[in-house]
Every structure is written in C-alpha cells, then in structure tokens.
Amino acid sequence: MSDIYAKLCPKLKEPKFATMSDLEALLEIQSEMVWVRVWVDTADAIWHATQEGYYARMKHVSESAPPEEISQAYQCWAAAKNIIGFVESTKTQKIDMDSQGAIGMKMAMVQCGFATQAQVTSLDELANKQVTWCESEGLPEIGLGHIVSARELNNGVA
Fold it and tell me: pTM higher than 0.85 for the full model?
C-alpha cells in the first residue's frame, strides 16, 4: 500500500466521512486545516523581541560586565549572553521552539525579567502554522481517484 493510501484509508474511516459522497469527502480533505509546529526563522524571533522591547534589555545585560558569579544576577547575565549569542550567530537560521535549549531560554527570559510570560508565549506562537491536512501528512494533492481507491481498500474491494 502506498504512503497515500496508508494515510488516506484511516482518514476516511473517521465517522464524519461515513455519509459523504466521494466528492464531498475529497473537498473536505482538501480543505481541512490543521495546526503544526515549525521551526521559526531567527530573524522573525529577533523582530518579535525587538518589537516587544525585550531584545534591548537582553542585549544591554549581555554587554555589561559580569556580576559576581554566585549571584542570581550572574545567572541572568549568563542567560542573556547565551540567548543573544545564539540568535546573533550566523549559524542559527531557524529555531526549534520545542527544543530543550529553546525552552530553557524562554524560561530564563521570564525568570530574569527580560520578558513577560505573555511575551514569551507570543514568541512561542511563531512556531504555530496552519496547513492543509495533506501538507501536514506530506501528501501530494489528493484527487477523486484516490478517494475512490481508498474507500475500495477500506471495504476490501481492491
């Protein structure tokens, strides 16, 4: 069974498709939108941080002299230095907002007062993208013939 049918057959078994014609099912599948997580362009993250005003705070702290190592201020200085260094690196072109490193950076931004929780949540939402169900499954455009064949496979006809 090809990849198309491996994904399309279970999809067509969903109750909402039971009473739909082949054409109705096709149109429903082609128009179904889902949310996926994507990597964020670093430039978009920097733009967000600049627009929200917390980039300048982190940049200022990262460029200041380091405080005493045993202080909370040192931890925040180190976090700012790490975050600014990461996003300004020419090697960092996209950010996986769900990676442990990015999660730690977002937490540090709030804990150190560089950004509010609402600002960090808004930053994180840059990773949410709405795409068609087919695109989310890595499928090409589905045609009426695919629906007919998938239903035949589901019914044991093919």
Answer: no
